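Exercise 7.
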Amino acid sequence: MFTLLEKAVIAMALFRILSGSIEVFAAYLMIRLNDVEKALVINSSLAFIGPLILIITTTIGIVGISDKISFGKFFWIFLGVALIIYGVKK
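Solution. The predicted structure, written as tokens, is:
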């Protein structure tokens, strides 16, 4: 009747909920402050939070499946995440 959820899945979902809540709050602040310069500062702050949440959720997911994948696949996963972050930041 009740399905047990994996702890890693719950943690990943909670971080994504937190990330979404921060995004919504940032949008509220932008509207409330009604100033382009302040909105740009808020938006720039979100550019830091997004990749951080990506790294955290990916790490939790990898730890959750660490017993099921080989070391070589770990390398490719981390390389992929690093390239995503590099591509976004440059």
